[in-house]
Design goal:
Layout lengths: L1 H29 L8 E3 L6 E3 L4 E5 L2 E5 L2 H8 L4
Antiparallel strand pairs: 1-2, 3-4
């Protein structure tokens, strides 16, 4: 008889907790992932800048990132 009561309480508890568990699992799956922004090094002044804010230029077949338009100009000008 005790076993039946324990099983009944376990089923009731499971029925009450199941929606909470489902909701918790659904929110962790559907959360948007944070966009990671990495630091890139300016080849002219050797400072680090966040890539999304850097001035981008193409050189040597790949992208080169600068902290400012002035550093990008210095990099591309032949006499500087």
């Amino acid at each position: 008889m005790r076993l039946v009561l324990v099983l009944a309480w376990a089923l009731i508890l499971l029925a009450l907790l199941l929606p909470v568990i489902r909701r918790a699992l659904a929110t962790t799956r559907s959360r948007p992932r944070a966009i990671t922004d990495e630091l890139v090094k300016d080849p002219v002044c050797q400072t680090y800048v966040v890539r999304s804010r850097a001035v981008r230029s193409e050189a040597g077949g790949g992208p080169v990132y600068f902290c400012s338009a002035e550093c990008a100009r210095r990099f591309t000008s032949p006499g500087a």
